[in-house]
């Protein structure tokens, strides 16, 4: 007897609803996109009870004639695609033709719509996928969709809706996204009868961002403008390095004006901040990526917040470099040289740097230092009701200060070191089969004097500045290391028998913790700390896919995790030393890196990755003052590790400036 049967429509719609309709915000997303596609110039979103009791979206778009209004609820009913060829060139937001059908299968829906030339508006009522009524109504041109009692007929899903505050937060975030992506459309957002966002049509993003976030916030942002039209144009705004968030919630990313939560872009954005933001904290960003339509596939994810780029690496490069340039333009990072300019003329490089960083840096710095604290709060009030994302714990000194004449020696020395480090990492990334031999350092690009603003007349002559600081080989380390103090509260300055040492306190501690976590795990002696209040977090679909594989390994390290339901996980205990506040970030980061491609990674590699991630999140941060005893302790512990000179991610931990080179630098030999 045949046992395969075709599912009735309402069942397949409910299944599809599982993909499209995750929470009220995902319903709002579909409705707002439909309004935008219908050419609306004004969109009003009204919610009650976190969108669960009521979610209403009205627009003044083109509306639908009666037949279309009925047809719109059929599965795969869409006015936007006619053939599969159209799929390649999608410019509208919706196109799968399943949103309305899915939503109507799990809620009580009323659609009222009017076209420019119909005699009367049409009202269609549908409950749980069953058409109740179609009749005339009064409505100005445009469409209003009213969704009541979301999931009223799917108790299993209703149970997993979060608190009203959480759902409202997601809705607010979503409306913010669309308001930013479409400055030309007027947006109004009404929560429980109170209008929380009112934005009239604006002439550009800047004006819209001002309407949404306020002037202070904007003053604090750096403008991004880069990339290439053939691959990806990148524009928008990013926060200064001092303005840190503990989640990605303040990142608004758009691809061809479509709001995305794309890991590739998120990661490239973070990479742009490499060396100025530690792991686990995130910048705020409004980033618009424009690519030719054929370069991007938006049909990847049912909720369409993920996209696939044909040339993903090139897009990531464009984002990273544009962000880097913006930071460099404001004087936060060094202007970088193109890697291929191996044997370039020194003068040229320095000249370019001067020209580009000079004036811009000053203004940016001035306005930035003027407007830090208050601005972040403005945004927080609006976007982050729980305010936990504002990382008050990162109370930082002003970021990089251009070296003043009096502080010249160390500041410029540091910039050389920074540069060496950066080049090092880049080379290492690109280079296979590096032997790890310390003398290889000779092959590194010479470290040239800083092309920073505020010329530094007393820099050592070029040739003696070359090879200024070198990576240290394990063999050359002795126990005789004496800490002297800290540089920028980030690097321990020490001496040993061969010269001056700089020890990156964060990576040094990372190495110590990595070895510790790894040993405890191997010996099954991991220690846990119970959380007073378990933290919960929601897995993305991608994270959920690797979670089951990862969870047992995490537990070996001292995590106690409980999968509550669906994609919610409760953290009941964390490994010792890991600050409770970091646990969630660490897990999210790890779940993101151990992605499906790496699903079959060898156990050992996976264990290393977990230990490295734990170490990174538990380690002392940069920009943290250390008492002398603590420095002593750290150095002693570091020397006992399996590899004191490289961190678990392969970065150098210690740089040495040899006494001999110092003597040479001062022309004493
Ligand atoms: P899709 O947007 O993928 O085409 P939907 O299920 O979201 O599928 O919508 C089905 C169809 O209903 C759309 O193609 C569009 O023709 C029509 N529609 C939906 N919402 C609106 C609206 N606000 N204004 C005008 N037409 C709409
Ligand atoms: Mg749609």
Task: Please give the structural blueprint.
Elements: H1 9-20, H2 24-37, E1 42-48, E2 54-59, H3 66-71, H4 99-105, E3 108-114, E4 121-127, E5 130-137, E6 142-148, H5 155-158, H6 164-181, E7 186-191, E8 194-199, H7 205-213, H8 215-219, E9 221-228, E10 232-239, E11 251-255, E12 258-260, H9 263-272, E13 285-290, E14 296-297, E15 308-309, H10 312-329, H11 346-370, H12 373-383, H13 408-430, H14 462-465, E16 470-471, E17 482-487, E18 491-496, E19 499-504, H15 505-522, E20 528-538, H16 541-556, E21 560-565, E22 568-575, H17 580-593, H18 603-618, H19 628-639, E23 654-658, H20 659-665
Parallel strand pairs: 1-7, 11-13
Antiparallel strand pairs: 1-2, 2-6, 3-4, 3-6, 4-5, 7-8, 9-10, 10-13, 11-12, 14-15, 16-23, 17-18, 18-19, 19-23, 20-22, 21-22
Helix pairs in contact: 1-4, 2-6, 6-7, 9-10, 15-18, 15-19, 17-18
The structure holds adenosine-5'-diphosphate (ADP) and magnesium ion.
Magnesium ion is lined by residues 30, 33-34, 94, 99.
Q: Which regions contain 5 or more consecutive residues with pLDDT less than 50?
A: 337-466
Record field, number of beta strands: 23
Q: Determine Rg (CA atoms, Å).
A: 28 Å
Structural class call reads alpha+beta
Counted by DSSP, the helix tally is: 20
Gross geometry: elongated
Strand content: 15-25%
The residue-averaged pLDDT reads 75
What ligands are attached or bound here?
A: adenosine-5'-diphosphate, magnesium ion
Share of residues in helices: 25-40%
Can you list the strand order of the major beta sheet? 5-4-3-6-2-1-7-8
What's the N-to-C terminus distance? 95 Å
* Largest sheet data: 8 strands, mixed
């Amino acid at each position: 007897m045949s046992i395969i049967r075709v599912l009735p429509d309402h069942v397949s719609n409910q299944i599809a609803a599982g993909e499209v309709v995750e929470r009220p915000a995902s319903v709002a997303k579909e409705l707002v996109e439909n309004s935008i596609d219908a050419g609306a110039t004004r969109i009003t979103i009204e919610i009650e009870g976190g969108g669960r009791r009521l979610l209403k979206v009205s627009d003044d778009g083109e509306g639908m004639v009666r037949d279309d209004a009925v047809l719109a609820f059929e599965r795969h009913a869409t006015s936007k695609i006619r053939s599969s060829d159209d799929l390649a060139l999608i410019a509208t937001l919706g196109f799968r033709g399943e949103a309305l059908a899915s939503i109507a299968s799990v809620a009580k829906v009323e659609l009222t719509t009017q076209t420019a030339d119909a005699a009367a508006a049409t009202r269609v009522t549908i409950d749980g996928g069953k058409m109740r009524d179609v009749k005339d109504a009064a409505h100005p041109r445009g469409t209003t969709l009213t969704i009541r009692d979301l999931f009223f007929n799917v108790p299993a899903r209703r149970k997993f809706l979060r608190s009203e505050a959480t759902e409202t937060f997601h809705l607010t975030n979503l409306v913010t996204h669309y308001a930013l992506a479409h400055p030309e459309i007027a947006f109004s957002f009404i929560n429980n009868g109170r209008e929380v966002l009112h934005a009239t049509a604006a002439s550009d993003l800047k004006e819209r961002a001002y309407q949404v976030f306020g002037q202070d916030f904007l003053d604090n942002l750096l403008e991004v403008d880069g990339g290439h039209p053939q691959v990806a144009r990148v524009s928008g705004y990013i926060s200064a390095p001092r303005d840190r968030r503990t989640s990605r919630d303040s990142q608004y990313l758009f691809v061809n004006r479509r709001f995305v939560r794309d890991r590739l872009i998120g990661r490239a954005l973070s990479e742009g901040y490499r060396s100025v933001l530690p792991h686990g904290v995130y910048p705020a960003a409004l980033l618009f990526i424009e690519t030719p339509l054929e370069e991007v596939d938006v049909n990847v994810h049912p909720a369409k917040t993920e996209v696939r780029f044909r040339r993903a690496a090139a897009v990531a490069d464009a984002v990273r470099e544009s962000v880097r340039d913006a930071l460099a333009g404001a004087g936060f990072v060094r202007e970088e040289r193109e890697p291929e300019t191996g044997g370039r003329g020194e003068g040229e490089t320095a000249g370019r740097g001067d020209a580009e960083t000079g004036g811009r840096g000053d203004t940016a710095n001035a306005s930035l230092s003027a407007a830090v604290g208050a601005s972040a709060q403005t945004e927080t009030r609006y976007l982050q009701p729980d305010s936990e994302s504002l990382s008050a714990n990162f109370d930082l000194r002003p970021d990089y200060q251009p070296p003043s004449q009096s502080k010249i020696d160390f500041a410029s020395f540091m910039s050389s070191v920074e540069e060496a480090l950066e080049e090092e990492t880049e080379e290492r990334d690109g280079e296979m089969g590096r032997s790890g031999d310390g003398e290889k350092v000779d092959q590194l690009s010479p470290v040239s004097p800083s092309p920073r603003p505020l010329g530094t007349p007393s820099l050592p002559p070029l040739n003696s500045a070359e090879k200024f600081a070198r990576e240290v080989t394990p063999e050359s380390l002795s126990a005789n290391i004496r800490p002297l103090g800290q540089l920028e509260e980030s690097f321990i300055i020490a001496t040993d028998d061969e010269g001056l040492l700089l020890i990156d306190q964060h990576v040094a501690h990372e190495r110590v913790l990595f070895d510790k976590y790894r040993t405890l795990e191997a010996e099954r002696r991991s220690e846990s700390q119970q959380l007073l209040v378990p933290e919960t977090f929601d897995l993305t679909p991608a994270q959920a896919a690797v979670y089951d594989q990862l969870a047992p390994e995490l537990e070996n390290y001292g995590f106690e995790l409980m999968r509550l339901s669906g994609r919610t996980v409760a953290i009941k205990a964390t490994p010792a030393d890991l600050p409770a506040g970091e646990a969630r970030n660490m897990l999210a980061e790890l779940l993101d890196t151990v992605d499906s491609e790496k699903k079959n990674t060898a156990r050992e590699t996976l264990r290393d990755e977990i230990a490295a991630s734990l170490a990174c999140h538990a380690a002392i941060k940069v920009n943290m003052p250390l008492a002398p005893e603590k420095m002593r302790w750290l150095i002693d512990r570091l020397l006992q590790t399996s590899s004191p000179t490289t961190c678990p991610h392969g970065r150098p931990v210690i740089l040495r400036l040899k006494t001999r080179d110092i003597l040479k630098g001062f022309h004493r030999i």
